[in-house]
Queue: 2 jobs
Job 1
Amino acid sequence: MEEAGFPEREAHVAEHSALIEHAKVRLQLFRNGAIGALVMPNFLKAWLIPHMQIMDRKYAAFLRRHGVR
Ligand SMILES: [Fe+2]
């Protein structure tokens, strides 16, 4: 992403980093018994689908515009 010069790289990476931090919190809550087993897959689904539909598609379109197949 950095090598390709993607202008929204920082925002994209920040979103991934935030996901990891939020997932870590939920994992700890799950291990402590504070949340149920379905919280994590529901959280990931709620994050992943819009991320792919918006952020990842922007990156894919950028790569296509710059000749990456
Ligand atoms: Fe992504």
Job 2
Amino acid sequence: MLDFLKRLTEPAEASIHARAHTRAWRRHARACQFESLESRQLLSLTVDLRLSGGSQSAEITAVGQKIKMDVWAVVRGKDAKGANDGVATVTGSFLSSITTGTGASSGNLSATPLAPFNALGSQSGRVQDLSSPADGSLDVGSNDNSNGGAFFAARAGKYVVAGTVKGACNSFRIASLTYTVTALHDGVTRIAFRPRTSAIPAIWLEDNAEPVTPSFLAGAAVTLRYVRTPSITFNAATGALGVQGTSAADTIRLGISSGNLVINVNTMTRSFAKTAVKRISILGMAGNDRITLGKGVIGATIDAGAGNDTIYCRNSARDTVDGGDGINSAQMDTFDKRTRMQKVL
Ligand SMILES: [Ca+2]
Ligand SMILES: [Ca+2]
Ligand SMILES: [Ca+2]
Ligand SMILES: [Ca+2]
């Protein structure tokens, strides 16, 4: 029993003589070197990131904003029962990376192992820029797989099987992760876990036993978006017009002038023949937006997004308006359809 506890609580390097694990991990190392479709089909431990509300994506709105995420270790054995799968140790890094454009933002990550995964040997991981080339955003963990000292480590000192069982999977919330925005850009940033590559980067149970063919992989990532540049798109074939604001406060106005539909989004202006436009979809996104539909504009679908938005749509046509999060107000026709509209003027 003492040996067992020692193995679970000591740094992974010290556990290397645990023969069963070593055998299993030699096989695992081979499986990782020849990462193939077969090994991916045998996912047994994956580490998912989710926003505190459960979703996988969020819109950045401001410098100083803190995006709170949960880190979930998800174990799946071969049988149909999740309740006999467990986890003891997970080590790795958390990285932010630019996915599109210049990324949503610059920001710094920090991790905290959660009970019972905060036992002896657990560590938050070193906060440092792991990107190459450096992107000025601080990540958590290490690029040096030969040295465990800087990695994030969740350790329970025992196998934990009391998780959230769903079908064949058992999920364990092993840490909280926070991304603090330091600068706003224009694009999408991805936050993901990266397993440590070492002799024993994780210890878990499948179907009440140590896995024979272990597979330890990053699972779901979180994507963050900040939109700095608005867009107006028109599909001439379908007549569909799309208007998208930015993640900040926008003034969006659609009106009819000399037979044209004229669209203004802040300083951007476009116009199309009124008769060519058959459908209108407007996204305000975050920020306190002001969205106005003038007389003669056809019924539109409006999603004002986060922020306290104001919508004027007495265009004598039936609009479908979702105020989104925040406290929203509208001047609308009595027959307009509305959701999340706290004040109707
Ligand atoms: Ca906006
Ligand atoms: Ca908004
Ligand atoms: Ca809103
Ligand atoms: Ca209307």
